[in-house]
Write a structure and sequence with these properties.
Layout: E1 2-5, H1 7-14, H2 20-27, E2 31-35, H3 37-51, H4 57-69, E3 72-75, H5 79-89, H6 93-105, E4 108-110, H7 114-122, E5 127-128
Parallel strand pairs: 1-2, 1-4, 2-3, 4-5
Amino acid sequence: MYITIDTSALIAVIGNEASKQKIIEITKGYSLCAPASVHWEIGNAFSAMFKRQKSSIKLAKKALKEYKKIPIKFIDVSLEKTIEVSHAQNIYAYDAYLIQCAQQTSTSLLTLDNQLKITAEKMGVNILELK
């Protein structure tokens, strides 16, 4: 059985954030899937951290080594449907890709992004909560 995972949860794990252990517990026994965009969002997240001086290149490279160990099935989501979701919900395409992935694969979504949670729930996507 699969779980759709987003960039925020992946960054929390590979960046050794406080929520790492909870995320690992929740995903234990499941396989992970994500839209292909998540791969590129990881790079974007680190570039944002560099700009805010929240990470060094050394830490980012170490985190990427951990990221490469995580088995993720990348899903090719419908660009047309994603754009429709983006327009209808007034959200960025990156969030719409995740919603579309969860809907297309009939999986729950694991995210740490509160606005994405709200929008995805509104669209009928089951959210996995960190408790």
